[in-house]
Amino acid sequence: MTVWRLGIDLGGTKTEAVVLDANGAVCWRERVATPKGTAEAICDGIAALALRAEAAAHSRLTVGIGTPGSISPQSGLLRGSNTVALNGKPVKQMLEQRLDREVRIANDANCFALSEAVDGAGRGAHCVFGAILGTGVGAGVVIGGKVLAGLHGIGGEWGHNPLPWPEPDELPTALGGQATVCYCGKPGCIETWLSGTGIQAHFGDGSTHSADIVARAGDGDAAAEQYLQRVEDRMARAFATIINVLDPDVIVLGGGVSNIERFYASVPPLLPKYVFSEYVATRFVRNVHGDSSGVRGAAWLW
After folding, report:
1. HSE of 23 in the Cβ direction (CA atoms, 13 Å)?
2. What are phi and psi of 215, to 5 degrees?
3. What confidence tens digit (pLDDT) does each residue in 109-152 have?
4. Which of 168, 210, 247, 253 has its CA at a distance of 20 to 30 angstroms from the CA of residue 46?
5. CATH code, residues 124-286
6. What is the pLDDT of residues 157-179, one digit of tens each?
7. Cα separation of 94 and 47, whole Å?
8. CATH architecture type of domain 5-112+293-299
9. Are 245 and 106 in contact (CB under 8 A)?
10. pTM of the model
């Protein structure tokens, strides 16, 4: 029997769906604007998209959905999604009623990590840590081909831990440093230092885009080069804590920051300074599937 999987990546402005065959080949794809309004209207739109996929595949499909935020194991309600109308709603139950089958929903960073673990940059690895460094910082953990969601559904929320081994100017402002308060309410989160917006915020007057900082360093700008070396050290410290706790085979980067090529050469040599081991063999690599990792990972939830 042919096994086909439907993955849906639910975003705040767009929703993408793909059908994968058993080998991971894309058999069908559609991208639509995320419906506005109520949770009911959004779920109706997702269900309609799923039924169009089935019509194209001429087969009943498994359905996996990736979204910012996660389903609370305690309440069963979605939380933390940028599709704010869905927050506090039993989205999984609503979709299962509409589609008359089980639906699997996971955080979009977990889907990214799963996609890269199955047939991306982490293929063949037992333990994969997938980190998205974009507007924010998120991550997912995959062990033995399975997403580690955790007891509270927050496995991989690495971005909301403090930057390790802070320098004096990286401490909270109350202690004389420059650490900014994260949207979560706590100062000095990794997200505020290593997201694209965080990298931008701490250089000059905070108006220079991270890609422009890299370009300036490449043109010989000493201030930009010195700053990027500090970013690389912060990145090494942050990932060293992951290696010390999880000891993954591979760390896969996604998001806009993953396109900064120099990090793949400059960060690994810094890791031994912070990792509790006499050597560090963890691979530090860029993703393979790019923007498609989330929707592909949603399909691979089955």
Report:
1. 2
2. -65, -40
3. 999 999 999 999 999 999 999 999 999 999 999 999 999 999 99
4. 253
5. 3.30.420.40
6. 999 999 999 999 999 988 889 99
7. 10
8. 2-Layer Sandwich (3.30)
9. no
10. 0.94
